[in-house]
């Protein structure tokens, strides 16, 4: 069975084209002497590697479980091991190993067996971060950064997360380790300090997604009156409203169900054991879960069997999955868990849209670094030449739109131009540039483009921030280009 059917490859060609362009720019920069070559090598690494997703959220919000679900492999330790308290990066690579990087730059290399890392090889306080390499198809598309948590009672965890994700971003010599996109997990309403933290990560709503995590136990949980996943889906909308300045959407997710199904815990034995409970009513089920000895309710059904089910399918899986197990067996149960978990939609967004925006974002960061170097005193003529050649490439159109979006978002987060910019950045057709369906008739698209152009011209009279004014000009260019492409 193909478990990757939800990988979105539709943006791959755009991503590849932009990667080529930026790699060439880095190579050109390297021609400017040894000092520029050092920057160029870091930039080249940054723009040519798979987009890197940072997973953040409070302690126990389900971050490591999600990392396992996304890689379909138990690579991230969950629970309270010391390893879970360091920032861990996951890459595709062989042989399977962990490299524990000390704050002093010392590297401890630890071979990995089949399970997650269980020791650090140095005191936790000496660890800057851990890099783990595994031959893994999922990691070939996206690499992951698991963090020990923010806004928790454990101040040290937050400090470690910040050192890599916030302070690290400011150091252009470490450009290749910057995160490109963000997944924020929360199993309840986000707090002010979390929102503040999100605003410090150098992302925009286009490169960030929120998750209402542990959705299988949301609200009153599996035995409540509403299906927790459906309830979580509804509630995710209100969290999305609260987080609208940080993330573009919030999805409900059960990382637990996704992990369990995707790492192969749903065996025939699990399905058969669960199927025994199919005929039970709600009250009897509650007894099976709560009584020390469930065989008094279902003869032959032991506490051990019950605990095994709790570990593999959880309370929600027991109550909502037992009939599926009886009817469709292990494969059906597993597919149902994957579908209900929300992991497919997340994978689709992370591999498609967000990867594309992440690549635009790092192109912008590369332009930032070039700007900085152009103002420095190492061969700036050369740097300026690289800048001007890079900026004149047609492929940079979307990068410039994204830069405008980022600058407008930073200076005027409630600007009315952010929506139109977003559409223009994500558009694949002229119609989509102005929020019309791709199949809209040409006349209608032309008329709407003209109308938007008029709107942009009128805005020039109004009060705009500097970033907005540039955004307005970029949109004029985008609308004109779309009109031209149609003629
Ligand atoms: N019910 C439920 N439990 C979860 C889910 N995700 C994680 N957990 C549990 O929550 C605990 C903390 O998860 P972990 O991934 O280590 O959280 P982290 O601290 O954010 O990395 C573990 O016991 C997980 O089994 C979920 O989607 N549903
Ligand atoms: Mg963790």
Automatic annotation (TrEMBL):
Molecular function terms, GO-annotated: GTP binding
Domain G: 52-189
Domain of life the protein comes from: Bacteria
InterPro entries per the UniProt record, alphabetical: GTP-bd, P-loop_NTPase
Name of protein: Isoniazid-induced protein IniC
Organism: Corynebacterium kalinowskii
Gene: iniC
């Amino acid at each position: 069975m193909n478990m990757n059917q939800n990988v979105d490859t539709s943006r791959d060609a755009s991503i590849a084209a932009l990667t080529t362009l930026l790699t060439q720019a880095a190579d050109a920069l390297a021609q400017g002497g040894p000092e520029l070559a050092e920057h160029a090598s870091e930039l080249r690494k940054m723009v040519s590697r798979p987009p890197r997703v940072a997973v953040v959220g409070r302690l126990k919000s389900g971050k490591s479980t999600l990392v396992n679900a996304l890689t379909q492999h138990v690579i991230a330790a969950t629970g309270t091991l010391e390893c879970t308290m360091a920032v861990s990066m996951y890459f595709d690579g062989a042989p399977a190993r962990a490299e524990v990087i000390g704050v002093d730059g010392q590297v401890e290399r630890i071979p990995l067996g089949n399970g997650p890392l269980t020791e650090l090889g140095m005191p936790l306080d000496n660890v800057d971060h851990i890099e783990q390499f595994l031959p893994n198809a999922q990691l070939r598309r996206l690499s992951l950064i698991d963090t020990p948590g923010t806004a928790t009672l454990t101040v040290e965890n937050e400090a470690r997360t910040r050192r890599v994700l916030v302070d690290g971003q400011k150091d252009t010599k470490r450009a290749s380790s910057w995160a490109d996109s963000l997944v924020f997990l929360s199993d309840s309403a986000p707090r002010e300090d979390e929102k503040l933290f999100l605003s410090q990560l150098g992302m925009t709503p286009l490169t960030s997604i929120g998750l209402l995590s542990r959705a299988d136990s949301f609200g009153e949980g599996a035995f409540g009156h509403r299906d927790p996943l459906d309830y979580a889906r509804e509630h995710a909308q209100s969290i999305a409203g609260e987080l609208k300045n940080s993330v573009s959407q919030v999805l409900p997710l059960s990382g637990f169900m996704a992990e369990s199904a995707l790492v192969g815990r749903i065996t025939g034995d699990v399905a058969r054991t669960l199927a025994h409970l199919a005929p039970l009513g709600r009250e009897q089920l509650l007894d099976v879960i709560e009584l020390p000895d469930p065989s008094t309710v279902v003869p032959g059904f032991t506490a051990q069997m019950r605990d095994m089910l709790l570990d593999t399918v959880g309370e929600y899986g027991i109550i909502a999955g037992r009939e599926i197990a009886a009817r469709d067996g292990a494969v059906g149960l597993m597919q149902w868990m994957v579908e209900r978990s929300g992991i497919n939609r997340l994978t689709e967004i992370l591999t498609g849209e967000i990867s594309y925006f992440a690549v635009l974002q790092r192109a912008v960061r590369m332009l930032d670094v070039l700007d900085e170097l152009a103002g420095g005193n190492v061969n700036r003529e050369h740097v300026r030449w690289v800048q001007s050649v890079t900026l004149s490439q047609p492929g940079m159109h979307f990068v410039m739109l994204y830069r405008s979006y980022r600058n407008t978002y930073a200076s005027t987060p409630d600007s009315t131009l952010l929506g139109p910019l977003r559409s223009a950045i994500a558009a694949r057709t002229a119609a989509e540039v102005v929020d019309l369906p791709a199949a809209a008739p040409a006349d209608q698209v032309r008329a709407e483009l003209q109308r938007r152009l008029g709107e942009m011209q009128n805005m020039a009279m109004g009060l705009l921030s500097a970033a907005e004014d540039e955004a307005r000009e970029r949109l004029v260019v985008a609308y004109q280009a779309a009109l031209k492409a149609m003629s």
